[in-house]
Specification:
Helix content: 10-25%
Distance between the termini: 43 Å
CATH superfamily of the largest domain: FAD/NAD(P)-binding domain
Bound molecules: flavin-adenine dinucleotide
Shape: elongated
Strand content: 25-35%
Radius of gyration: 22 Å
Oligomer: single chain
Number of domains: 2
Number of strands: 17
Structural class: alpha/beta
CATH topology of the largest domain: FAD/NAD(P)-binding domain
């Protein structure tokens, strides 16, 4: 069993973990980044990013390569094939992280294991998932690629409504499919949606009490098959893209009982300083409650966690300060 100590152990080499790693390494902290597979996270699955400031179009893999090299150039250690499996806090305040037969001990841990889009689980979903084939899970990311096209959006929660409204700004026609009559999204969003649907020149049409049972096409998405759950009737909708907004699954199973999780598995934290309930353990990126689920916000979270870590290392009592006292403007 290998045992290594560091000032900071970061879990997950996606954008959040790499953002944290860059700041920690550049601040000359000893830092170890543990990654289950290889650096990348979700963004490695896309070859077109248009909304990361400073890059008008870059592939996820290229951006991640630059991020990883930057971390390593400042002396940060990235350990691949090293999943964090169990965490505990010792009585001396150090945090232990077990990965296989290895043990990592840090003064601070930044949790950045990310999350995954929940899949719909219908035929065609995986086939057309690769970039440009027409299945997407992020309206904010991909709506501009469907300018003047016909798209189908699926879901009934806040993200589904928000991203469908966003899609309607670009697409020629948006069919929004929801399995119930009522939406789970907040009232104000549903009112906005209905306002848009009821406009005489609306490009948005609701398909309620309906589910998509198949996504079909040749090289790209060409149509979906809908089924009305009340009547059992099926119908085909010709379309160029399908946006699936049925939730996210955070990669936090290994943290159960260590930090507080929401029912859906997102890590609870204070929204300003990203402190979890365990002193010395911060959280960053898509795995946390209230995450905006974007590349730039994940990076920003990582940077913030690495900045706030310095307050804790200087004075562990900082951890217990209420939000309003944790940092006064005078600190700057
Ligand atoms: C296809 C696709 C396209 C996207 N396009 C865009 C876009 O154009 N613009 C945009 O802003 N956003 C986009 N996103 C969203 C963006 O990728 C995410 O918001 C961002 O990657 C979140 O970063 P993260 O670091 O929090 O988590 P993740 O990217 O999920 O990274 C988490 C990392 O942690 C690792 N990990 C998990 N558990 C453990 C463990 N126990 N131990 C060690 N490592 C672990 C994972 O292997 C992974 O590498 C897209 C997402 C997808 C899937």
């Amino acid at each position: 069993m290998a045992e290594k100590q560091a000032d900071c152990i970061i879990i997950g080499a996606g954008p959040a973990g790499l953002g944290a790693g860059l700041y920690a390494a550049r601040d000359r902290f000893q830092m170890i980044l543990l990654e289950t597979f290889y650096p990348g996270g979700q963004i490695i699955n896309t070859d077109r990013i248009e909304n990361y400031p400073g890059f008008d179009n870059i592939a996820g893999a290229d951006l991640i390569l630059k991020m990883s090299e930057q971390v390593q150039a400042f002396g940060g250690q990235i350990l691949t094939n090293s999943p964090a499996e169990k965490l505990s806090r010792r009585s001396d305040g150090m945090i232990e992280v077990l990965s296989g037969s290895d043990k990592y001990i840090g003064k601070v841990v930044i949790l950045a294991p990310g999350s995954s889009y929940r899949k719909l689980g219908v035929p065609g979903e995986d086939q057309f998932r690769q970039a440009g084939a027409g299945v997407s899970y992020c309206g904010t990311c991909d709506a501009p690629f469907f300018k003047e096209k016909i798209v189908v959006s699926i879901g009934g929660g806040n993200t589904a409504v928000e991203d469908t409204l966003h899609l309607a700004k670009y697409a020629k026609k948006v069919y929004m499919v929801h399995r119930r009559q009522e939406f789970r999204a907040t009232k104000v969003l549903v009112e906005e949606l209905m306002g848009q649907v009821n406009r005489a020149d609306s490009n948005l049409e609701l398909k309620l009490d309906s589910v998509v049972t198949q996504i079909a096409g040749d090289q790209k998405v060409g149509k979906v098959i809908l089924k009305n759950v009340k009547t059992g009737k099926t119908e085909e909708i010709a379309c160029d893209g399908v946006f699936i907004f049925v939730g996210m699954v955070p990669n936090t199973g290994f943290l159960k009982g260590f930090v507080d999780l929401t029912e859906a598995g997102f890590i609870q934290c204070d929204p300003a300083y990203l402190r979890t309930r365990v002193p010395g353990v911060f959280v960053a990126g898509d795995c946390r409650i209230g995450a905006a689920m974007q590349l730039s916000t994940a990076v920003a979270d990582g940077v913030n966690a690495a900045m706030w870590m310095k307050h804790y290392l200087r004075d562990p009592g900082w951890w217990n300060l209420p939000l309003s006292d944790a940092l006064s403007p005078a600190d700057w």
